[in-house]
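This follows on from our talk about sequence and fold. I would like you to pick a protein and set down its sequence and fold. Go ahead and set the record down below:
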Amino acid sequence: MKALRIVLILLLCSLLAFASCQNGEGETSAYSPISVAPAPENMSDPEENSQPANLDSFALAMQSILDNGVSLKTSFSSRIDKSFMEKIAEKFGSDTVEQLATALESGVVTGDDLFGIIGYTEKAFLSILDDELDRTTVLKDTENRNTDLVFVGDVSFADGYSVMNYYNKRGKGVEGLVSEEVLSILRSATVAMANNEFTLTTRGKPIPDKIWTFRGKPENVSIYYEMGVDIVGLANNHAFDYGPDSLTDTLDTLDKAGIARLGAGENLEEAKAPYYYIVNGIKIAIVAGSAIDPYSTRGARENQSGVFQIFDTVSMSREITAAKEKADYVIAYVHWGHENTTVLTGGQKSMGKAFVDAGADVVIGMHSHCMQGAEYYKGKLIVYSLGNFTFSSKNLTCSMLKTTITPEGQIINRLFPMMQERNFTYINSGEKGESQLALLRSLLINAEISDDYEVTVPQK
């Protein structure tokens, strides 16, 4: 009986061992069946869950970029390592690294491809990544990704002259000087720019033997807020009207007000320095210079304040070319020509073309105090003078340029003919508007303008 009990126990152990082997297909299980919870109904295939989603998708993307780095043909290709990609993730988000990795798996990626992949051009991307943002404003992207740059001409808020007299007398703020239609275009612009042709100071003395000198109280700078102006040019023949103190005060006042400025400075390096904007994934440079009045308006030097003077094509062209190496688009903003005439000088024509050859995408002129013509050269627009915006009591034609850069990189230019009449600037309508548009058409060279003011290269 005892022997039978032993046999039965051995037989039972054998059966249990056989069942265990069958269940594990000949392998020993690492887990006790009691500790195994039932699988959730929505559980994916084990291969799909082999990596934690957030952490490992970024790690996999970094490894993919390292593996496919030979296909990256950009200026920063040699910099690619894990710390560089972590910096990209910090500045732009980990999605940017993953988008780049996906693109590299499909083939070669060049600098020109980046905008379509990550939404930034190579120049804008590197400026933000490397914190190269001196004299640069990074703006919030627009809803439609269009970049609207609006430019107007000469502005003076000098006390004791007609503009400020009418501003105070009418009591409507800037609406007493500029129509609502024009203000709407300025205020809705991505960037709006004017030519600041006066000093913002209470100090200094008028430059001797200069007929017209302009000085406005520093608080007058607030009118730029009312207009919607973001940046002003100082490369003109009135930035130094009350001497070095007046220029210093003007620079300081604009800086404290948050109005960007260029074209003058405490030394030549500052005076000629471009100003940059990064918006909608692109980088734009504006360069300003003056070819007017070398006698009573002091030019900046290495250790001397003044304006950036450009009495040849070389100095401005050099700055445009340098700016183009850092930016996708360059705007040249120039003071030149003769006053109160639509007739262009040979210097305007030669300089404008030289600036396009140097890399400018649009050239915009001032100084004539009236609207001058425009032309296309090598597909780039040169506007010879916008004329006044709000500068004097004279009744004069003037204009406003709206340059739109689309997400596809197309540049659309609209040149609005306007009037400055009785210290009020507006766009004409009706018969007066038609006659003013006809005047502008008569001044165009190798360009045509539609009824809604779009300026294009003539169709052959």
